[in-house]
Amino acid sequence: MSSKTVLAAAASLICVGCYYGTMQPAHTLGENHITATGSIMLPAFLEAEERAEAEQSGVDYLEPYPSLSLASGATDNVDIGISVYGYGLGPFLKYSPMESSSPAAVSALAGVGYVLPAGVISVRGSLAAGHRLGRRLQLYGAWDVGYGPDLANVPENEEGEDDWDAIGNTTSQALRLGVGYELRTGPEMSGYVPESVAFELTVPLDLSRDMVIAGLGVTY
Known about the structure:
The chain is mostly beta strands. The chain has one domain: Beta Barrel (Porin), CATH 2.40.160. The chain contains 2 helices and 10 strands. The chain has a 10-stranded antiparallel barrel. A hairpin with a 3-residue loop joins strand 3 and strand 4 (88-95). It is globular, with a radius of gyration of 18 Å.
């Protein structure tokens, strides 16, 4: 079995719809603050009939998919990092004009990724706003946009295998609402305790199916 076939099979299982959901709040990390975040995104159709039709036709059908991101506060206002998905990886940069410790924040994120099965570059971006409610809790919302291979609609060849050479590009858009809770706010707690957990709800705006995508992330 060729390496391209292996990559295509892995991507079809875990990265469909990977433009949706980023587990990125509005606040920046703060200078020299380094984090690692793992997340799982769980698509949920609003109607069972829609899910059955999507599963049968393969049109706009999303499977659960994981991701991992490593980020560092390059300055108090700028984060840099890398995101790893089932299909590949790529860097990102986030900027906020506000201090990382401020109660409110607005930020912009831009990133690129190399889609291994298709052998092409994808781009993504988001605008986010958020507010801290006390020391540990924060709420945020965002508008996400991306452009790249249409991973929710991978065509098949005559043998019934994914045809990555024939895949088209698409623009994806989504609205995202999240809540984050800090579990570890100082060095007095064990390093085995996650720094924070987050829950997101993402609503894709470009798909033909009505669905939401629930995401759960854990940050160390």
